[in-house]
Amino acid sequence: MKINYKNFEIEVYADPDYIANIYDIYTDNKRQYEIIYSEFEVEPSENPDFFYTSNYAIIVKESEKEISSAIICETDRQTMLNKNSFIIENDKIWICVCNKIYCLEIPSLELIWQKDFDAFSNFYLHKLEDDFIIHGELEIFRITKEGEILWRFGGRDIWVSIDGKVECSIKDNKIILFDFESNEYVLDFEGKELEFNPRIIEIETKKKWWQIFG
User: Fold this and answer.
1) N or C: which end of the chain has fewer CB within 10 A?
2) C-alpha dihedral, 77 to 152 to 82 to 173, nearest 10°
3) Nearest residue to 74 (alpha-carbon basis) of 27, 28, 121
4) SS3 string of 64-98?
5) Cα 17 from chain centre
6) Are 68 and 108 in contact (CB under 8 A)?
7) Is domain 120-203 given the CATH code 3.30.70.330 in the classification?
8) Are the C-beta atoms of 74 and 54 separated by less than 8 Å?
């Protein structure tokens, strides 16, 4: 994905085959990056079964010239990169990678902060006033741009829908949530639950055999 921001072109993409090597440049990597963010840098020959679950690369160009590049390599639960995985504003990029949020400076891509949030995965980021809503697998968070948690909310099940519903959305000054069972939750911006609408499962009534032939 490419985004135009001020005088910069910022590209964000997944590089799943990249391996961060603590000894030297790993020669099989197709692309090299100026900055590598990884808590686990390995020598592949010592641990051939090791792999990163999510590698997200960020390239910043100005006047078509690359001025900075970085890759974030994480080993926790895999997340899929999409347009809601990151937010760019105020000369910063906030990006979800596995269960962490990284905040990097633009254009240098130097780390400002990095924190764990959901115990499993952070799926999406949403703007909410001057803050962000994190759609996590287990919890929904409201955080400041500095990464401080203002509130967190958990439901009866994980925040993944199998019915095609949008699990986390902001409408009419309310936060609308659907969990795995399709239970609906309505929160205000302070994280207070205003409504809970459980899924109603219709049970088909079967006739007895004597009702069918009687």
Assistant:
1) C
2) 160
3) 121
4) CEEEEEEEEEECCCCCCCCCCCEEEECCEEEEEEC
5) 20
6) yes
7) no
8) yes
Peptide bond into 16 cis (omega under 30): no
Of the candidates 163, 203, 192, the residue with the CA atom closest to the CA atom of residue 179: 163
Edge-to-edge strands, sheet with 86-89: 86-89, 92-97, 100-105, 111-116
- Residue written as token pair 């699990």: 167
Domain ranges, ordered by start, for the chain: 1-116, 120-203
Q: Output the CA angle 134-160-74, nearest 5 degrees.
A: 55
Helix (H, G, I), strand (E, B) or coil at 211: helix
pLDDT of 106-143, one tens digit each?
Answer: 999 999 999 999 999 999 999 999 999 999 999 999 99
Task: Give the type of residue at 122.
Answer: N
User: Per residue in 8-66, pLDDT tens?
Assistant: 999 999 998 888 765 445 567 888 899 999 876 555 455 544 556 789 999 999 999 99
